[in-house]
Amino acid sequence: MSVPKFWDPPEYQNVGGVRNFLGEHGDRLMTKSEALSIGSTVKLDDDTELETIFVAISSYRDDECPNTVQSIFSRAKYPQRIRVAVVDQVDEGDVECSKPRVPCEEDPTHALCLYPDQIDFFVMDATLAVGPVFARHIGHRMYRGEYYAMQCDAHVLFINDWDEDIIGQWHDAKNEMAVLTVYLSDVKSYDEETGESLTESRPIMCESGYESSGNYRHLRHGQQPEGTPVVKEPVLEPYWAAGFSFNRGHFVVNVPYDQYLPMIFQGEEINMGLRGFTYGYDYYASAHSVCFHIYAVGENAKRRNKVPKFWEHTNLYDDVEEKAFLRLNGIIDMNPNEDPNLWDHTDEKKYGIGKVRTTQKFFDTFGIHTKTQTVEGHLCRFVGTPMQNKFIPALRTNGMGIDYDKIDYKFVDNFKKK
């Protein structure tokens, strides 16, 4: 299989490439000037310059994908700034994401017809699909230096002017290392005709626990709580979500998806999240939602449950998942009881952890016990306003992330039933 090369412009080659320039593969926190060197702009007809947005979508035999692309462009205030990259895993006879349901000759107003130069597709046979991690890895390879990078699923609908809204929320965090990320709310809270949100509540990432057993045991984020925020600004949270992530483009450069994790579905989020944490990134729940997920619930249950899943071809790859889990947990120091020689260390520098923060600092701060594979419960009672008040004072004065050397907090569940 031939895949796109990672973005690595010629101007960085004399310093060992763009990742070496940006903090030497996580050996140090990149400087503010290094971070600000990443990011392209586009000019409008009136010469106004806009920061660009890269949107990565991984789609597996999903007929909703063309509608998601349409929503991204049609609901944006400035569609000129957007570039979408779709990894489309399809079988013969499937609806391809690159093809609108109504041909462009009949309806030239569809985004796929209006903005073909701003949409790239990597189409692959569904039998070659080995899970969302590899598909999203290819998506990260399609990044080309945009100012912001966003990731979402192939069945998501956006509110009006979502681009200006989410950029404004990112700026409200006053943190170059901010990543806005959540499990999206259901589309029932969205008016598809008007493009308006019907709710003031928003999710927050705080619930997680171990599941499965043996070499497959991993930390999985569960159903996350929703509520109306007390403070109308992004608030800190410990975990990263794959279904929606918005950040500066250098996050994709520094923390690319690991190509050596086939057949992984659960577990990708703690792997990506911890790697990002060790590079110095901070996760925030957005103040309000700019897009909504079409879950297989309610009136959408019957239709969405018919969409095939990648594990329909598990029989073709039945000997790889256990090895992938060993690597997934090994890279982020979450299997201390295992012999490191048992897992694959290929390209560990490229897909491994940074040195800005340690994984142990994360475990200690948020109550994760890797040796016993247990977590402190009720973390959600701390995440939100209490975490915000305690951690934001440690935000570096230059806005380059939270300085965890100034944080000695360790979460302990004081809400256990006596």
Explain what you see.
It contains 13 helices and 20 strands. Strand 12 and strand 13 form a beta hairpin. The protein is α+β, with helices and mostly antiparallel strands. The strands form 7 sheets. The chain has an 8-stranded mixed sheet, sandwiched between helices. The protein has helices at residues 18-21, 32-36, 65-74, 111-114, 132-141, 162-172, 250-254, 268-279, 301-304, 321-331, 348-351, 359-366, 385-391, and strands at 41-43, 49-51, 53-60, 82-90, 119-125, 148-153, 156-158, 178-181, 190-191, 196-197, 202-203, 208-211, 218-221, 226-227, 235-237, 244-248, 282-285, 291-293, 368-369, 374-375. It starts with 17 loop residues before the first helix and ends in a 27-residue tail after the last helix. It is 23% helix and 19% strand. The chain is globular. The mean pLDDT is 95.
Structural class: alpha+beta
Specify Rg, calculated over alpha carbons. 21 Å
Apparent shape: globular
- Tell me the strand percentage band: 15-25%
Structure described in brief:
With 418 residues, the chain is α+β, with helices and mostly antiparallel strands.
